[in-house]
Write a structure and sequence with these properties.
By secondary structure, this protein is mainly alpha-helical. The chain folds into three domains: about 60 residues, no CATH class; about 40 residues; about 80 residues, no CATH class. Helices cover about 65% and strands about 0% of the residues.
């Protein structure tokens, strides 16, 4: 009975054929058509598919050469991918360290990571966005001592938790502290505005 159940479950499934160069090329084209990607991510995807399905082509698959062809044709642009991904992460409030980790996993080179991490003002704006989204520091409710929001003083345990949340999001300790210690939302915005745009 177990044998019948197994075959019954697998009856409708197609067994994926092992890859050859033509199928690998098709798979790469399909992937870059569907997703904005980096050369590192494309290479990882193709290697994973070869592991999953096997290889029946002549010789060994040359994944780096295939990725290079996609780059040469303009289907993969690491610089554009890095800038778009970095900007998206900053809009969500993540800091430069978190952006660098994410782009590093995507196979982006260090100079492009530095460009995608934004200017000092953009990084501060990301810290502000994170504090607003998570209701930290001057954007929080009920965490100030004696309910005095004008003083901007948060009890020490809450402050430590909030600073730690910002640091985990990739912001430097000094920036996290400055945001959490801002007296009010206007002071937080002033801290962002006084940053250099470089």
């Amino acid at each position: 009975m177990d044998d019948q159940g197994e075959t019954g479950r697998n009856r409708g499934r197609k067994v994926a054929r092992p890859l050859d160069q033509a199928r690998l090329d098709e798979m790469a084209l399909g992937y870059v058509a569907r997703f904005a990607t980096s050369s590192g991510r494309l290479g990882d995807y193709l290697k994973r598919k070869i592991r999953e399905r096997g290889w029946e082509g002549a010789g060994t698959p040359d994944v780096p050469a295939l990725v290079e062809r996609m780059v040469a044709r303009g289907y993969v642009d690491d610089a554009g991918f890095a800038l778009a991904r970095g900007a998206g992460l900053m809009r969500r409030g993540f800091g430069a360290r978190r952006i660098a980790q994410t782009l590093g996993r995507d196979g982006i080179d260090a100079p492009l990571v530095a460009q995608a991490s934004g200017s000092e003002r953009e990084r501060r704006a990301a810290a502000l966005a994170f504090a607003q989204r998570r209701r930290l520091g001057p954007f929080g409710t009920g965490s100030h001592e004696n309910g005095d929001k004008r003083q901007g003083r948060i009890d020490p345990a809450t402050r430590a938790r909030q600073v730690a949340a910002m640091v985990r999001a990739g912001h430097p300790f000094a920036a996290a502290s400055a945001m959490i210690d801002a007296a009010d939302s206007d002071a937080a915005q002033e801290w962002v505005d006084e940053a250099d745009d470089s």
